[in-house]
Amino acid sequence: MRYALTLLIALTALFSASLTGCKDKGNDAGGGGADEIRVGVFLSLSGANADFGKTTKNGIDLAVEEINEAGGINGKKLVIIAKDTRSKPEEAQTVAKQLASQDKVAVAIGSVESGQSIKAAPVFQEAGIPMVSPSSTNPDVTKQGDRIFRVCYLDDFQGQACAAFAYKDLGFRKAALIYAQDDDYSKGLAQYFREAFKGMGGSIVEEAPFQGDVSEFKDQVSKIAAAGPDVIFAPVYYAKIGLIARDFRKQGVTVPLVGGDGWESPQLIQLAGETLEGSYFGYHYDPDDQDAKVQGYLKAYSAKFGSDPNSLSALGYDAVYAVKLAIELGGGSSADQITEGLRKIKDFKGVTGTFSIDENRNAKKSITMLKIGGSNLSKVKVIKPEDLK
Amino acid sequence: MVPVASVDFTSQLLQYFANGVAKGSTYALMAVGYTLVYGVLQLINFAHAEVYMLGSHFAYYQAKWGGYLPDEPGAKPESVPILLVGAFIAIAMLACAAVGMLIERVAYRPLRNAGRLAPLITAIGVSLFLQYGGQVVFGTEPKLFPTFVETEVFEIGSVKIPNTNLLIVVTTFVLMLGLTLFVSKTRPGAAMRACSHDMRTAKLMGINVNATISLTFAIGSALAAVAGVLVAMDQPAITPLMGVRIGLKAFVAAVVGGIGSIPGAALGGLVLGVSESVVGGLWDTNYAEAVAFVFLIVVLLLKPSGLLGKATREKV
After folding, report:
1. Residue A250 in this model has a pLDDT that exceeds 80
2. C-alpha triplet B269, B159, B284: angle, nearest 5°
3. Which residues of chain A lie closer than 8 angstroms to B234, CB-CB?
4. Confidence band (pLDDT; 50, 70, 90) for B204?
5. Measured between alpha carbons, how far is A40 from A82 in angstroms, rounded to an integer?
């Protein structure tokens, strides 16, 4: 027994020594050796929102593979160091610290959930590492520091767009809200919808927030049912909307639900059964776009992963190409050069649309409203930022 | 697309009451497990919530391996025939009973004479082990629970009660009644009561104490399995951490009802469920739990032994 223990300790020591040895090699300030650029990725690869991380990671992997096969950027290959945030904001902060101090990445890409991005951003800001969020829509994300960027639209726009869609296109006047009080994304989006919908002349007849990891929404549903709304805005993530929709239909509430980009998941319809039939949600790009870039991406993705891409994977894909462009514009692959390059991005043509990085390090983009019918999603309307002026 | 008609206050209140009874029944079914074990061993079996989680997972995997879950995402799960549902639940109950007895054998029995703190710590240990072990074995993503019954909604006046909720209430009532009869009328039930009163004397009277304690864990765990499946039928997404919240609430329900008392567990569960729903419905869903728990604190301040607890039964 004692021998076994000694052996174990010796092995552990040897193993950790070899690990540190490896790490030292790539430890120069540029975030990578002479022939590589280290890109940190932090996403929910497991846990309640695992689909967010998995689909985004697919998009990132596809872009990195394309870039490296074409010879890299100025001869340097992109190396992805991916960390799992397990769908938890605190965990995002922990892995951000690892990426910044141990892995010495030159740039970070992540996360989908705004709550995670808000927690991780100060870590990268302090370490002087630029962070690009592919799909965190809460306005507070890029307010965390001048090295924090994003390539997606913001929730003030998304909330307004959903409100305008419900009010003008669907013709509803009485809305009810159900959202997660303790989630930055959900609470923020509900707030922007509320303001915009009231501003147009509609009324919010009931609000039923919830807190914590609940899976049962009977009382929220009864409360909303009693108020008799003609549309329900539910800015929650995909794992919850299925349960929420089921509870609504169980109490005979058949009005359509409207949600944001958080509904997006390959499992959405399976989790909700038929209960989301006739409901709508926001999407980051228009898959019917006949543009060669979009169609090329759709083909390459299906060929590599054997499944249809969604807009989160498209944003992951665009985030990598935005980093590539930033390296070219900034004149190098150090953290500072990439930050400078990201600030200079103008009229970047991505799969999810053409956009520029503005002075607040955000992107202005269109939202595509999709309708759920049977097992299909169909495009109903594309809303551009200028439409809401 | 038809807007729901606004409903009057009384029907609203009744709706919240119905919601609360359904919720409270699951708390009650779980609370019995805490109360049975506490009655016999004065031990809070924190791993009970994880047995509940295992119950729903055992049923899930039976249905999955039976081919009742579609492989490709987007496809609608097939409805499971009712006889098979019964079989799945029965097997899940047996499996959980076995797990419960195993937990007692491994984590509590060796510490039976080690005071009350040591087994409490192992209970927390087993609970955490199963939570995180569950994440390793089952994965952390929520799993869609197969369709055991097609949803139907009954309407009584303007109050809407889904069949899954009705099933929860009826099953809980029947099981609680059966359990009360078992404990009060049968010989093993008498043995359980004897152990609960005085374990040493019970032993001297020729009662097999170890077997009786195993039986207590088996019954509590089987009931937790039923609760796990019933809740999963109503809220068809299961995760390895699904027991944490309901476990805490059921434990509170057991204490409020008077820990050690079976009718107390039922009452405590219902009181907690109904007060949550009514507070949430009439005031704010955000703070429903906070207010419900304040209410429970008041109950305990006024009656420290719980609603149906006997103050005299406290042993030193």
Report:
1. yes
2. 60
3. 216
4. very high
5. 6
Predicted confidence band of residue B82 (pLDDT cuts 50, 70, 90): confident
Q: Please name the member of A226, A239, A270 whose beta carbon is closest to the beta carbon of B74.
A: A270
Identify all chain B residues contacting A86, using CB atoms and an 8 Å cutoff: 140
Q: Tell me the β-bridge partners of A76.
A: A73
Q: What angle do CA A316, A284, A273 make, to 5 degrees?
A: 100
- Whether B78 and B127 have beta carbons less than 8 Å apart is answered as no
Per-residue pLDDT at B75 exceeds 70? no
Interface test with A, best of B17, B19, B289 (most A CBs within 10 A): B19
Report how far residue A135's alpha carbon sits from residue A138's, in angstroms, rounded to the nearest whole number.
9
- Structure tokens, A157: 């726009």
Q: Do A266 and B74 touch (CB under 8 A)?
A: yes
Please tell me the predicted confidence (pLDDT) of residue A9.
58
Per-residue pLDDT of A260-309, as tens digits, reads 999 998 888 888 888 999 999 999 988 888 888 899 999 999 999 988 88
For residues B299, B300, B302, B305, the Cα torsion angle rounded to the nearest 10 degrees is 120
Cβ of A243 within 8 Å of Cβ of B235? The answer is: yes
* Per-domain boundaries in chain B: 29-151+160-244
Pairing of strands A280-283, A353-355: unpaired
Percent of chain B at pLDDT > 70 equals: 93
Does A252 contact B76 at a Cβ distance shorter than 8 Å? no
Q: What is the pLDDT of residue A271?
A: 87
Query: Nearest 10 degrees: CA dihedral of B230, B235, B238, B240?
Result: -80
What domains appear along chain A, each with residue ranges and CATH number? 11-153+291-357 (3.40.50.2300), 155-283+368-388 (3.40.50.2300)
Answer yes or no: is pLDDT of B11 > 70. yes
- Give the pLDDT mean for B49-72: 90
DSSP B79: B
What's the CA dihedral at B45, B49, B51, B54 to 10 degrees? -160
Q: Residue A275 phi/psi, 5° resolution? A: -75, -15
Burial annotation B11-38 (CB, 10 A radius, 16+ → b, else e): bbebbbbbbbbbbbbbbbbbbbbbbbbb
Q: How far is CA A289 from CA A294, A351, B34, in A?
A: 7, 9, 59
Regarding beta strands A353-355 and A348-350, do their DSSP bridges make them parallel or antiparallel, or are they unpaired?
Answer: antiparallel
H or E stretch at B129: helix B117-138
Of B141, B234, B248, B249, which to mutate for an interface test with A (greatest number of A Cβ within 10 Å)? Answer: B141
Contact A216 B73 (CB under 8 A): no
Contact partners, residue A354, CB within 8 Å, separation at least 6: A347, A348
Report ipTM for this prediction: 0.89
The answer to whether the Cβ–Cβ distance between B12 and A226 falls below 8 Å is: yes
Residue B111 is classified by DSSP as G
Amino acid letter, A47: G
d(CA A256, CA B222): 40
Low-confidence winner among A28-42, B146-160, B290-304 (lowest mean pLDDT): A28-42
- Shortest distance between the Cα of A196 and any Cα of chain B, in A, equals 22
Tallying the residues shown for chain B, one arrives at 316
Mind listing the pLDDT tens digit for each residue in A15-35? 554 444 444 433 344 455 678
Identify the pLDDT of residue B129.
Answer: 97
Angstroms from B60 CA to nearest CA on chain A: 15
Determine the Cα–Cα distance for residues B6 and A356; give it in Å rounded to an integer. 47
CB A209 within 8 A of CB A178: yes
Helix, coil or strand: residue B77: coil
